[in-house]
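JOB MANIFEST
job_type = single_chain_structure
chain_count = 1
residues = 257
[input]
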Amino acid sequence: MIGFFIKKSFFDGWDNFLGLLLQNLVFTVLGLGALGTISYVESTPLVFLILLVLLALFSVHQTGSYFLVKDNADYHGASFARYKEGITRKYKHTLLYFAVVFLVVLCSGIIIPFYFKLGNLIGYIIAMFIFWAVIIVLLALMYYFPLTYLLEDDKPSKIFKKCFLVLGDNFGFSIFLAFWSLFNSVISIVLAFLVPGVAGVNLSHTVGMKLLMFKYDWLEENPEENVKSIIWEDLLFEEKEKVGNRTFKNMIFPWKD
């Protein structure tokens, strides 16, 4: 399953290179805006206000981006109309996402350092507890927007709860997905955040959740069975047919086929 995940994520990104690039340009502008604000704005209240606005814009763009990469993972092209549709339809999910990310940033940038600076055992314990809570929330957030668009009728709070259920049920894969996202982020730094960038990471989260849904659909159809009975080769047969027999080698050296 992991091997096919890597292949599908790569070729879905390759087939939609331009769309991901355009999305990443917006993410890059927002990131540069945040760095510029921290570096050049001296008023603390003004810095906080600007960063809050940028975080809100980031959350809105994330909503639209995940909608586009969901289409990409389903083998469809992206369009600005679809981007706007995602933002319009899921504004409540955006608000919850913004609130959670704001708390994560607050904990990471202010609360955890505060308790560490206390310099006592209680402070260290509280800081480490909050640190691991933040890590778990970040892992769960990988599934938030993919589930939002897969489970259209679920409210934001219900989606958020299901993120933790998916995380707990697929902890090994979630750790792999987190490291895969980190790997993509490192590559993005080298390539000026244009590819794969945040949009590419979003695509990998979406592909991962889409493949996991095959497991849950199968378990729903076969309630008497357990996870160990799953044959991924059979579950992913149609997806593999859609991706085709492409390889990295014949993509770079097509004349060698």
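[summary]
The mean pLDDT is 94.
The chain has 13 helices and no strands.
exit_status = 0
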